[in-house]
Amino acid sequence: MILKKLFKSKLSTVVLTSLVVTSPVLAQLKQKRDADMSSRLPVATDRLYKNFLTPPDQAKSKVYWFWIYNRVTKEGITRDLEEFKAKGISGVNMICNGGYAGKAPLPGVKFLGDEWRELFRYAIKEAKRLNIEFGFNLAGGWTMMGPLVAQDDAMKKVVSTHVTIDGGKYSGKLEKPETVECYYHEIIVQAFPLKADSTLDPDKVIDVSAGLRENGQFDWEFPKGKWVILRSGYTLTGHPWSKWKAYPEGDTFEGGEGYEIDYLSKNALKRYFDNLGNTVITEAKKAGGKIDYLWCDSWECGKLTWTQQFRADFKKFRGYDLMPYLPALAGFKVTNEDVAERFREDFDKTIQDCIAENFYGYFAELCHNNGMRVGFEAGGPNDIPPIDVL
Fold first, then answer.
1. Which of 52, 92, 103, 171 is in Cβ range 3.0-4.6 Å of 65 for a Cys bridge?
2. pTM here?
3. How far apart are CA 196 and CA 203, in angstroms?
4. Alpha-carbon distance 177 to 163, whole Å?
5. d(Cα 79, Cα 132) in Å, to the nearest integer?
6. What residues contact residue 381 under an 8 Å CB cut-off, 6+ apart?
């Protein structure tokens, strides 16, 4: 109301003139205030602001770069990488895989063949030219598997059979436990007396492996009473995804099929790394570039419960020998049901400790020793024990 009255009065010209005159002064005051505030901003905040306006490469998006059925050409490689760069993508994670392809797999170059290696080297050179970070999924397919994984380095599980006898001399064949793909090795043959309540004393579990012959014949002299003879061994897990097949039977390309590695075993991982890992590292060096990191996709291949060094690893992680309690895995109550369940929990914890140390930790160590970083996708949906492996 006051302004309206002023505008209607003779003073309106004076008021408007003063407003026009003072506006440059206000602008100068604002500039001075902004400069003062800017000078007081911490260097870190200023850097964050600048990086927000112009993000550095490490803050930009990175993508999976699928070589599906290894159907790639040099022209396609250049086009992909140049388009990635143009769209602000700063890194690729190269994955050779299969996938749905209709009635028959799509034709592509032979994995790890001469042509594939030439294309791989070309991709390394192009990524270096465009300053694109280069990762490689260490697999002949989705996960660490392939034709070079022997059964001894594949995923394994504990299996067992048992027979209940009366004491005295026993002579007969022990049933062989489940055997997957003709692969089976003994762990131990144990015997123990059962109490009236069907429990057993771990201090009375004895090793009678010496009584077993290769053909399954078993001979032993037992004290009087009711005894259980438990034959325990290990075989392959037999999980559908513990051994990948080429399309259309499975989800990978021809030449990439084979067993998953034993994720509890450092030795299995080392042999796999020495083969495929050293191959791609060498090819990258030939191209005058490098692999920035190796990757492991999610392994969704079920639970594994044994490896050749599991007894020693159990002792290291849990502090006691698992053998007197091994009957608990076959459903027997060792001491009582509570003790048996606690042992089975220790057993599952040890599986996770082996995965964390012998696989994730050791894979990181191998990558770091070769000047690379490491990356993982989560374990994925499967029936590993419900304990965080990391």
1. 92
2. 0.84
3. 17
4. 12
5. 13
6. 300
Q: How many angstroms separate the most distant Cα atoms in the chain?
A: 130
Token readout for 146 is 């392939």
Whether 231 and 177 have beta carbons less than 8 Å apart is answered as yes
The DSSP line for 284-314 is HHHTT----EEEEPPP------B-TTHHHHH
**What confidence score (pLDDT) does residue 385 get?**
54
Task: Write the pLDDT tens digit of every residue in 270-306.
Answer: 999 999 999 999 999 999 999 999 999 887 888 899 9
| Dihedral of the alpha carbons of 100, 104, 110, 116, in degrees to the nearest 10 | -50
- SS3 state at 199: strand
Cβ(329)–Cβ(205) under 8 Å?
A: no
pLDDT of residue 38: 54
Which residues have a Cβ under 8 Å from the Cβ of 138 and sit 6 or more positions away? 144, 272, 273, 276, 277, 280, 294, 295, 296
**pLDDT tens digits, one per residue of 351-371:** 999 999 999 999 999 999 999
Looking at residue 46, its pLDDT comes to 82
Q: Tell me, what's the pLDDT at 254? A: 85
Report the half-sphere exposure of 154 (CA within 13 A, side-chain side). Answer: 26
C-alpha distances in Å from residue 331, one per residue of 54, 159, 200, 206:
62, 12, 11, 18
Give the pLDDT score at 11: 36
C-alpha distance across the termini of the chain, in Å: 71
* Cβ contact 329:174 at 8 Å: no
- Positive or negative, the CA dihedral 93, 98, 99, 100 is positive
DSSP string, 87-140: TT--EEEEEEE----TTSPPP-PPTTSHHHHHHHHHHHHHHHHTT-EEEEE-SS
Enumerate residue ranges in the chain where pLDDT < 50: 1-22
- Give the whole-angstrom CA distance, residue 379 versus residue 298: 5
Omega within 30 of 0 (cis) for the link into 248? yes
